[in-house]
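G., the chain you wanted modeled:
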Amino acid sequence: ADLNFITAGPPGFQFADAKVGTGSPATKGQAVAIDYVMSTSGARYGAKIDSTVDRQAPYKWTLGDGSTIEGLELAILGGDGVPPMLPGGVRRVIVPSELAYAELARPNKNNLQVQDCSTGRGPIPPNEPQKGGDMGAGEFQRFKNIYCNANRPYQPDLVLDVKLFGKRTVD
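Predicted structure as C-alpha cells:
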C-alpha cells in the first residue's frame, strides 16, 4: 500500500499513518512502549539499520523525559500540526537530523572525531551481539557510521516505522 506522507511540524518532518490506532493518545509523563524499524533515507534508501521486532525488545521510555529524540516524541505526542498516535497505530516518520541525532555527529570539545555514540538521546541500537553467532553489533556499527560520524558532510533523514503499544491488560 502506498503511504501518503504529510508534511507538518518542524521543517523536514513528514509522517504517514499505515494504521490509525484506537483509544486515547499518550501524554507527557506517561510511559510508552513501541516497536520500531529504523532505516535511512541515505544512498541505499530503505537500508534497515535496526529493528526492535527482530530482537524482540520494545523500546520504552517516559514521554518528555529528555531520553528520546525529538522526532520520535513528536511522532507519538503530536503537536505543531501532527496528530498524536493512538495505541495500536503504525506510523512511518521521516525525521530530519536536527530532530534526530545531529548532536551525536558534532565534533566533541577536543575536536576529536572519536564519538561516544552509545550515549545521547535514544533509540540507539545495542552495542553488543544480539544472539549467538553474531559477528558483533552490526546494527550499532551501521547506526554509528551514518548518524554518529562528525566526518560525514551531512546526516541523511532518519526513517522510523513505529508501532505504538496500548496499555497491556493482565488476564
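The chain is about 15% helix and 25% strand.

Shout if anything looks off.
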